[in-house]
Design a protein that fits this description.
Radius of gyration: 19 Å
Largest sheet: 7 strands, mixed
CATH architecture: 3-Layer(aba) Sandwich
CATH superfamily: Zn-dependent exopeptidases
Distance between the termini: 47 Å
Order of helices and strands: EEHHEEHEEEHEEHEHEEEH
CATH class: Alpha Beta
Number of strands: 13
Number of helices: 7
CATH topology: Aminopeptidase
Helix content: 25-40%
Strand order of the largest sheet: 1-3-2-8-11-9-10
Length: 290
């Protein structure tokens, strides 16, 4: 059984990688969750894999998970283990973060506050199986794509693609860095405060989206988590940025289906893919001319 898709360009190849780690909707039989399916589906990055599926036509590699993030989250560190979820003792050293303590670490204990995913604890063997069978193959594929492009071109640009619930679906409205309630952006670009990609790249994407009329924030409130931390090292030409999309732009969060704006919005996403691959190609040319 395949746990992810890796789609490579047929013709022109550019050192650009898009990945969607949270849009998977094939639920393993052994998942054994107790939440209702609609609630589980609301935790997905619904249809993000479809929004970006034109990337290979522009020379980019596209990787997306087929399994749901609630089963195992590839955007967490492999040692972000929630001890409250384990039956028995974890045999190795772990580093649980605040996310694990909140029930949303590598393996989710809570779907959201007050809603547990399971009515039991998980065995060490179950968690190790998920890591070996789902988590590691996903990161192996992403590492191979990023490293191969970096080796062949000397630079690589990686977009880690997500969606975020709209404000009306959230428990509370988002707050700005000043603590004031703010209008939710359409996109949030996360580069871990400039440490996972070149600031010029982040600003270029922001300008492209703003020119289309979208509200764009940078690192507020999503800075990027494990994937961009792991794959972004701008000092050696590995640029990794997280892109969060407001679901209300394309998705009916109540009915769990595409809304009437979907086709127009996908065209804008395809335009962004074209812009990003063009940016990479132009920068390769400038580097070669130095």
């Amino acid at each position: 059984m395949s746990v992810l898709d890796v789609i490579k360009p047929d013709e022109k190849v550019l050192p650009v990688v898009f990945d969607s780690p949270h849009s998977g909707r094939h639920y393993p039989e052994e998942f054994d969750f107790i939440c209702d399916m609609k609630s589980m589906q609301r935790a997905e990055d619904n249809d993000v894999d479809h929004l970006f599926d034109q990337a290979p036509k522009f020379g980019a590699t596209f990787i997306h998970a087929l399994f749901p993030r609630t089963y195992i989250d590839t955007n967490r560190a492999a040692d972000d283990i929630d001890l409250d979820l384990i039956e028995g003792n974890w045999p190795e050293e772990i580093t649980p973060t605040v996310r694990s303590h909140a029930g949303i670490g590598l393996i989710r204990r809570l779907l959201k506050p007050g809603i547990p995913v399971y009515d039991r604890k998980l065995t060490v063997e179950e968690i190790k199986h998920r890591i070996a069978t789902y988590y590691e193959p996903y990161h192996d594929a992403l590492e191979n794509a990023v490293s191969e492009h970096h080796y062949n071109f000397g630079q690589v640009w990686h977009m880690n693609c997500h969606s975020m619930p709209s404000t009306r679906m959230s428990a509370r409205p988002p707050r700005s860095s000043l603590g004031l309630i703010s209008m939710q952006p359409d996109f949030v670009l996360g580069d871990r405060n400039g440490t996972s990609c070149n600031a010029d790249f982040t600003r270029a994407i922001r300008k492209f989206l703003k020119d289309l009329g979208y509200r764009v924030a940078i690192n507020d409130v999503y800075r990027g988590v494990e994937i961009v931390r792991r794959y972004g090292t701008p000092s050696i030409g590995r640029h990794s940025i997280q892109i969060e999309i407001n679901k209300a732009l394309y998705w009916d969060e109540e009915k769990l289906c595409r809304n009437k704006n979907y086709d127009k919005f996908k065209n804008d996403i395809t335009g962004m893919i074209d812009f990003i691959t063009g940016y990479a190609e132009r920068n390769l040319t400038m580097l070669a001319a130095d």
